[in-house]
Write a structure and sequence with these properties.
The complex is a heterodimer of chains A (387) and B (613).
Chain A lengths: L2 H14 L29 E5 L2 E9 L7 E9 L6 E2 L11 E5 L4 E5 L8 E6 L7 E6 L10 E2 L7 E4 L5 E4 L7 E4 L1 H5 L2 H4 L8 E4 L5 E5 L8 E6 L2 E4 L13 E9 L2 E10 L2 E9 L7 E2 L3 E2 L5 E6 L5 E5 L2 E5 L7 E2 L7 E6 L5 E7 L2 E6 L8 E7 L9
Chain B lengths: L12 H35 L17 H21 L4 H15 L3 H16 L1 H21 L4 H21 L19 H12 L9 H23 L9 E2 L2 E2 L1 H9 L6 H16 L1 H21 L2 H21 L16 H17 L3 H26 L2 H6 L2 H24 L7 H7 L7 E2 L4 E3 L5 E3 L7 E7 L6 H15 L7 E7 L7 H11 L7 E4 L3 H10 L4 E2 L8 E2 L2 E5 L4 E7 L7 H18 L4
Helix pairs in contact in B: 1-5, 1-16, 1-17, 2-5, 2-7, 2-13, 3-4, 3-5, 4-5, 5-6, 5-16, 6-7, 7-13, 8-11, 8-13, 9-10, 10-11, 11-12, 12-13, 18-19, 18-21
The chains are: A mainly beta (387), B alpha+beta (613).
């Protein structure tokens, strides 16, 4: 045995001796307090419309602390009036599902949980009946519903990572490469006018131009940037004068049909309003909705429907705006357990309510003052399978 | 605290059986040590005449009463502590159930220090658990049998050293850096009192008759008690309230937490009754505690013998009452490690009083001291000169012989533990506790042809001549497979010298994520890309299913967001392509200790086939 090993042995013996008598005094445990949650953080409970239909991701099951929370993907194919379970198989999804839709396909990312640290990707081209694995993203995907984006046709993808970086791949077995960081964009001419500090959403214009968005530290500026010819340019809407001295954050950014749709939060503290925006020319011009005051409520979910409808749940109430040039419409009190709203093609949104392993779909019949139960789906959750 | 908790059930039958077997085995060796030492002594006495006239006669002063009280009292306490360490749950339970909770409320740096030792224990629970038993039993016996002389003083010093080790690592510095410190609940930690007593026992004989000794001991104790009285009286610490906001106050909260400890009903009823009384009369109880501590502290500090006598009696009664009603004896529940701090405090106070009361007056001491000192000084030189002579050994008393046996018992526990701690790899007993042992096998392993993480074709047959450690891993699995990957990585590191003789191989265990990119991502995730002899194989879904079927491994695609359903297995394949072990490889809790243990299991299996163990 070498000298160092002898020393190690002697020291360890003394300590491991650790032993015995272990009866120190006990004391009351300190009580922690929950960290404040941003009232405008976007939840992964959401729905989005694609050419193939409407997709919704909701968390179901039991306690997340015991890994019994399982995220589910539901699809409502175009032309159908019923929802079906379409959760892709093969990977535990306790960390959350993030979807990005093209014209004929949907890519789903499994946010890593427990000891998994990278992001498996899977794709369907038939409405979620058959899935095929894509090369994984070798990093953890950010926890935001617009962290993954695809253009409408090609295999290109963009992802926001938890470390704040935006990466892009050409698809197939091509590797992911850094597209931008908040710092690189903040250093550009367009970025300096915003003071971008983070990414909250990634997207592509209908013409396939990459978009990145986040909160601006400069008041009255919407931080949406387009990479045109390798240069990042400001592509966000002009903020109304009423919010010219307010902080503006991009909560959501997506592509629906041939237009871009965004959801902005303007203000700070308890005085935050939401603004929906639409652009039909790749971000060149935007139309903004009237402001929807949150009244200190927490935004629980935001969803997008056909024709650019935007539905928002906040503090137990729900509002929907059906598209450019329309007004926010307050919806009746939501059914218990509503996780997200789905503005479906028929016009009125549907409420997807969760109770453990049961999803209940509630419809709002035009002219009615209350919700009507339309469908119940029992999900075969395998409790304990991730523990 | 990472690492301290092995995650194994503290009553795990495999571990408990192994611990009992180890103690029985070592117990027999301990008896053999005493027998051999005794036999040698008797032999020397029979064959050699005892030292007499021509040898230097060593005259020793009689051991004073205060030292007898401390030596015998703490000898019994150490002996009891050692016996308590032999409780079946100790080997696994001490780090996670005793040390970790004790350190939990201490500052981060304390937790870091304690965690180091706790982790070391959790990696080698058998050796550490047994060592704690034999070291403490040995110290106890040593103190009891060695009444005087250098061996007796050395016993005191060992008691100091071990007491401090226990105080730091076992008691997290007695909780002195944690909030809620109170004498009533054991501050500043029993083991620190053991250490103080050990230091007094280790004093040279010339200090025994000095009245200043008693004054110093009682003065120090008095000062400490006064400080504790101030702390007890300090507002805002919750001791003045029996209840607060509908919850028990600080003291009632502490005692109510003790009541559910498995113990005779009568004792828990006493604790509950005291808790109820404190909840109803919290102010009065704390006032009494503060006053008692203050009075005892002030009187001890004064050094007035006439006052100290009755106050000492009261202090002993208070200590016993606190021991029963607040500390709940300290040794119940299967994980009690010692009788807590009150008996040691009482012993220390009594010892201090006896030192004060029985010492000669200063003028008498001055007359006695030169003679004692002369004897003591002469004895060191003379003892060294004559100690090695057979005649002297033959004339050694039975107490000294027993003390030598006790030292042997201490070494019996300490030596294997020291050897174990020099090994950074955990014992395989943890893996065996989780999954059991593999029966020896010898059958031809099914060949396969798959693609590795770099896109190269690999067959099992191409690995002939090497030991193959074969696992089945799902690259997107979130729980077991990453842990197994870490275990394979550790095994690869342990077998680094045998990379040309051992191949670590995993077959993809997911029928959907079959692309090489998933294997590469998994390898990077677990650091397996740094292991030179690591192969992670995949193929088409059909190819993979054929391999799983050939090895009898089921796979199930589960719905609704679950991972692929599969078992956790590993196969040890020898150089001729024969399966020699099938290991159930469920990684269990996946702690540092268990991961290391599984890696050790793989490593041992490979080394066995290589003829290296």
């Amino acid at each position: 045995m070498s000298t160092s090993r002898l020393i190690t042995a002697a020291t360890a013996m003394l300590a491991t001796a650790v032993l015995a008598v272990g009866c120190g005094s006990t004391s009351p445990h300190s009580r922690g307090s929950a960290a404040p949650v941003s009232m405008t953080a976007a939840s992964l409970n959401t729905s989005v419309a694609t050419a193939g239909g409407t997709w919704a991701t909701v968390v179901m099951g039991g306690a997340a602390s015991q890994y019994n929370n399982f995220w589910q993907l539901f699809s409502r194919p175009a032309g159908s009036s019923t929802w079906m379970l379409a959760t892709p198989p093969g990977t535990a999804d306790n960390g959350g599902l993030v979807v990005a839709g093209g014209s004929q396909f949907l890519v789903t990312a499994f946010r890593p949980s427990q000891d998994l640290t990278y992001t498996p990707l899977i794709q369907t081209g038939d409405g979620g009946q058959a899935w095929s694995a894509l090369s994984p993203l070798d990093a953890p995907l950010a926890s935001t519903p617009d962290a993954l984006a695809t253009p409408s046709a090609s295999g290109t993808m963009m992802a926001l990572l938890t470390d704040g970086t935006a990466e892009q791949t050409a698809g197939g077995s091509a590797s992911w490469k850094t597209l931008a960081t908040p710092q690189t964009i903040a250093a550009t001419t367009a970025g300096r006018s915003c003071g971008l500090s983070a990414f909250t959403a990634a997207g592509y214009t209908p013409s396939g131009v990459p978009l990145l968005a986040g909160p601006c530290s400069k008041p009255g500026t919407a931080g949406i940037f387009a990479s045109i010819g390798g240069t990042w340019q400001q592509a966000g809407p002009q903020i109304p004068a009423a919010f010219a001295d307010q902080d503006v954050a991009v909560l959501r950014l997506t592509r629906v049909g041939g237009q871009l749709v965004t959801l902005l939060a303007a203000g700070s503290g308890h005085d935050v309003s939401l603004l929906a925006g639409w652009s039909a020319d790749n971000g060149g011009h935007w139309t903004l909705s009237p402001a929807l005051p949150l009244r200190a409520a927490t935004m629980d979910s935001a969803s997008f429907g056909n024709a650019g409808a935007v539905a928002v749940m906040a503090g137990g109430r729900a509002d929907v705006v059906s598209g450019s040039g329309t007004q926010w419409q307050a919806l009746p009190a939501l059914p218990p357990g509503t996780a997200t709203l789905a503005p479906v093609a028929s016009g009125e949104p549907e409420a997807l309510a969760v109770a453990a392993a049961t999803l209940t779909v509630w419809q709002l019949v035009p002219g009615a003052s209350d919700w009507t139960k339309a469908q119940v789906i029992h999900v075969p959750i395998q409790y304990g399978s991730s523990g | 605290m990472p690492g301290m908790n092995s995650g194994i059930n503290i009553s795990d039958p495999t571990v408990v059986a192994a611990f009992k077997a180890a103690l029985l085995h070592q117990g027999l060796i301990a008896l053999l040590i005493f027998f051999m030492v005794g036999l040698a002594w008797l032999g020397l006495r029979a064959w050699l005449p005892a030292a007499s006239g021509d040898a230097v006669t060593v005259s020793r002063p009689a051991e004073p009463a205060w030292r007898q009280v401390l030596r015998i009292g703490f000898g019994i306490v150490w002996l009891l502590d050692g016996i308590l360490q032999a409780q079946p749950k100790m080997a696994i339970g001490l780090p996670s159930q005793v040390i970790e909770p004790t350190a939990a409320s201490s500052p981060h740096w304390v937790q870091t220090v304690v965690n180091w030792a706790g982790t070391a224990w959790s990696f080698h629970p058998m050796q550490a658990g047994a060592a704690a038993v034999w070291i403490q039993v040995g110290i106890g016996i040593w103190l009891l049998v060695a009444a005087c002389g250098p061996l007796s003083q050395l016993a005191g010093l060992v008691s100091v050293g071990w007491g401090l080790v226990v105080w730091v690592f076992g008691e997290s510095f007695g909780g002195i850096f944690a909030p809620g410190l109170t004498w009533l609940f054991g501050a500043p930690g029993a083991a620190l009192v053991y250490a103080v007593a050990g230091a007094l026992i280790a004093l040279p004989a010339r200090a025994w008759q000095d009245r200043r000794l008693g004054r110093t001991v009682l003065g120090g104790l008095g000062l400490f008690l006064l400080g504790m009285a101030v702390l007890q009286a300090w507002p805002g610490r919750g001791f003045w309230q029996g209840t607060a906001h509908g919850q028990p106050g600080t003291l009632a909260g502490m005692t109510s937490a003790m009541a559910p400890t498995p113990q005779p009903h009568m004792l828990s009823a006493w604790i509950t009754a005291f808790t109820n009384f404190d909840e109803a009369h919290g102010f009065a109880v704390n006032l009494f505690a503060v006053a008692a501590l203050a009075v005892a502290g002030a009187v001890f500090l004064s050094g007035r013998r006439r006052l100290i006598g009755p106050v000492l009696a009261g202090f002993v009664v208070l200590s016993v009452a606190d021991w029963v009603l607040v500390e709940d004896f300290g040794f119940f529940g299967g994980l009690g490690t010692d009788p807590n701090s009150m008996l040691p405090f009482a012993l220390l106070a009594v010892g201090g009083y006896l030192a004060l009361a029985s010492a000669p007056a200063p003028d008498q001491a001055a007359a006695v001291e030169p003679a004692v000192t002369a004897r003591a000084e002469a004895s060191w030189r003379d003892r060294i000169r004559v100690a090695a002579t057979p005649r002297t050994l033959a004339s050694t008393g039975i107490g000294s012989v027993a003390a030598i046996g006790a030292i042997g018992v201490i070494l019996l526990g300490a030596a294997p533990m020291a050897a174990a701690q020099a090994n950074p790899v955990a014992d395989t007993i943890l893996a065996q506790a989780i999954d059991g042992d593999s029966a020896p096998l010898n059958y031809q392993a099914s060949d396969f042809s798959l693609t590795d993480q770099n896109g190269r074709a690999v067959t099992l047959a191409s690995l002939r001549g090497k030991v193959v450690l074969l696992g089945f891993l799902d690259p997107v699995c979130t729980s077991d497979c990453p842990l197994m990957g870490q275990e394979f990585r550790q095994a690869g590191q342990l077998l680094a010298a045998d990379t040309s003789h051992v191949e670590l191989v995993a077959v993809n265990y997911n029928p959907l994520d079959t692309q090489v990119g998933y294997l590469q991502a998994f390898d990077r995730q677990e650091g397996l890309n740094t292991i030179r002899n690591w192969l992670y194989l995949t193929g088409t879904s059909t190819q993979l299913q054929q391999v799983w079927h050939a090895y009898g491994l089921p796979v199930e695609i589960l719905p609704a967001g679950s991972m692929i359903g599969h078992g956790d297995y590993a196969f040890v394949i020898d150089q001729n392509g024969h399966v020699r072990q099938e290991l159930n490889f469920d990684p269990g809790p996946g702690t540092q200790a268990t991961k290391s243990s599984f890696a050790a299991e793989l490593t041992d299996a490979a080394r066995q086939l290589l003829g290296r163990s």
